[in-house]
Fold:
Amino acid sequence: MDYTPLNKIQDAFDIQTKALREQKLIDIKTRKSALNTLHATIEKYANEICSALSEDLGKSELLVKMTEIGVVLEEINHYIKNMDEWAKPQVVPNFPSPLDYKGRAPVQSFIQHEAFGIVYIIGPFNYPFNLVLSPLVGAIAAGNRAIIKPSEAVPHTAKIIEKIVSEAFAPQHVAVVQGGREENEALLKLPFNMIFFTGSPAVGKIVMKAASEHLAPVVLELGGKSPFIVFSDADLERAADQVVQGRFTNSGQTCIAPDYVLVDSSVKDAFLKKVIEKVQHDYPDVGSTGKVVTTTQVKRLLSLIERTKGTVVYGGGANPEARTLQATVVDGVDWSDSLMEQELFGPVLPILTFKNAEDVPTLVNSHHPNPLAAYYFTNDIENGKRMADLIASGDAVINGVMLQVVSPYLAFGGIGASGMGEYHGRSGYDVFTHKKSIVVAG
Structure:
C-alpha cells in the first residue's frame, strides 16, 4: 500500500482549513445528504469490504456484516433520524444578574451545539472499518470536517476505506491519509480542532501530548484488562457461552473482550468444563478464530503462554506465518502471571479464582483498575449492580457480554487508563460539538 506523501498531508489539511474559513457552518441538510451518500457508497462496496477484511483479519462475511458494515449503517440511520432534534438549541431559564442593564433580566438564554471544525480520526486495526467510520459519522453529523487515517496494519481495508470516502465526500469535507508512524507524527503536528483516537494506552498518551500543544480536545478509546467475573450463583452454561463468544470472536482482538476470568473457586471446575466444551465445539482448529493482525503478535502471545505458571487446558497450537493462534484456555493463573501483565488482545483466556465475593472489587481495582468493560455473572441482579458500583470501569454488563457497544442509545467510552470521552448516538453528536451558551439581554 502506498503511503500519503508528507507534503500531500499538509495539502489535505490546508484544503479543509480554507474551506472552514470560507464556510464555517455546514447546515443540517448538507450533513444529512453527506451521510446518505456515505450509506449508499458503503452498500455499493459491501462485497469489497468483506473481501478486504477476510484478507487482513480472516473475518467471515457474516462477522463483517454484523460487526463492521451493519454497525456503521445503523449508526448513520440513527443520526439521520435524530440529528434535527439534537441540533436544536437547548433553551434554559433566564437568570437575573446584577450586571443586567437597568435591572432588566435576559429575555432569552440557550445552549447551542457548535462544530469544532477539523477533526483528526485515527483508526485501529481490530475493527478497522467500524471504528474509523463510526466516529466519522458522528463528526459529520455534528457539522465537522475530518481527516481520517486507517490503520496501516490492515492495508486492504485501508484501501477500501479510502475508495469509499473519496467517492462519498469532497476533499474539503473528508480526506483519507494512508501511512504509519511517520505520517501520524506529521498529522499530530497540525493544529486540528479535535482528535479522536482508538488504540493502545501507550499511543493514547502520545496523542494526548500532541493535542495539548494546540489545546485541542481529545477522545481516547483505549482498552485494558476487562474482567469476566463469575459468582457462585451464576448460570454457568450461560456464562461459559458468553465468555467464549466474547473472548474468541475476531481472534480475541476486541477492546471490550473479556481479558480474563475471575470465578468463584467453588464453581470453577464445573464452569471450566463447560468453557472447554464450548471452545471445542466453536473453535476446534488453529485457524478457527480468524487471523491475528501480525506474525509478531502471534509470537508475542506464544511467548506469554510459554512463560505462564498456569496450565494450558485447551489449545496452544499456532501457525505464526499464517497469523493464526488456536483458542487457548489457561487454568491456575494468578495475578503475577505473564498472562496478567497487560491486555492480551488475542485468543487466550486466563482463569483466576476467588474465595470470598466481597474481595472481588479489591482484587480488580488493585491489580488492573479502570478497565474498558467489566462483566458480572450472577442470579442476584442487585449484587451485580453493587459490584458494578464498586469496580470502576468504562462500562459494565450483567449476565451478558459486549452488549454495551451495540445500542445507539448508550454512551460508550473508557475511564482512566481505558480512555476518556464517549460516543455512539447522541453521545457521539455531543462529543463532536462545543456547547456555546448564548444570552439575549433584556
The chain is about 40% helix and 20% strand. The chain has two domains: 6-222+418-441, 227-398.
